[in-house]
Design a protein that fits this description.
The chain has 5 helices and 4 strands. It is an alpha+beta fold and 100 residues long. It has a single domain, classed as 60s Ribosomal Protein L30, Chain: A. A 4-stranded mixed β-sheet has the order 1-4-2-3, with helices on both faces. Helix 1 runs antiparallel to helix 5. The radius of gyration is 12 Å and the shape is globular.
Length: 100
């Protein structure tokens, strides 16, 4: 999934402190998110459980990228699940995915 706009917006969300990285941190927050991004190589259990943290009007998106690829975008070793807290960032990320 080589989409520089997606990568740019997701990176900005992280730098702005509006992205939560990793299933354990998402679970620990106890929040529901407008957008949950899930990599293609997470386990079935993580995939199923990550979807529990999507708000009623939110969306879970399974990405065609690995944990290492998402980690590279976000400045971490590997990230299997990321949640976006800000509605503006979430909408921009979804738009970049749909317009790819």
């Amino acid at each position: 999934m080589a989409n520089s706009k997606f990568e740019s917006i997701l990176g900005m969300a992280r730098r702005a402190g509006k992205a939560v990285l990793g299933y354990d941190k998402i679970k620990a927050s106890g929040k529901k998110y407008g957008l949950v991004l899930i990599c293609s190589d997470v386990s079935e259990r993580t995939l199923r459980n990550a979807k529990l943290y999507v708000s009623e009007d939110g969306k879970a998106v399974e990405l065609p990228m690995t944990m290492f690829e998402m980690g590279k975008i976000l400045g971490a070793e590997k990230v299997g699940v990321a949640a976006v807290e800000d509605k503006g960032f979430a909408k921009a990320i979804l738009d970049s995915i749909e317009n790819q």
